[in-house]
Amino acid sequence: VMTDKTNIVSINGTDHDIDTFSDEQKGIINQLRLCQTKIAQIKAELNIVEVSQQAYTDALIQSVEGNKEAS
To answer: Rg of the Cα trace of the chain?
Structure first.
């Protein structure tokens, strides 16, 4: 689990200074950070799509129910 501290990572409850990691381990940390950023972006995009879906659903319901009343 990554913490808020840029150079500290907690693994199974133990904090580790990333500066002491090998280049391979630092590369893995960078990939994890990219994954975390991408997950946050996808969640934000999903929220936008869900709100849009609800708006379209509401518009369809209003359109169908409005047509029933006009008939």
So the answer is: 23
What does the chain look like in DSSP terms, one character per residue?
A: -B-SSTTEEEETTEEEEGGGS-HHHHHHHHHHHHHHHHHHHHHHHHHHHHHHHHHHHHHHHHHHHHHHHH-
What the block records as the tokens of 23 is 């280049």
Cα dihedral 29→35→38→42 (10° resolution) = -150
What is the per-residue pLDDT across 4-56, written as a single tens digit (0 to 9) for each?
Answer: 567 899 999 999 999 999 999 999 999 999 999 999 999 999 999 999 999 99
Apex CA 40: angle with CA 2 and CA 4, to 5°? 25
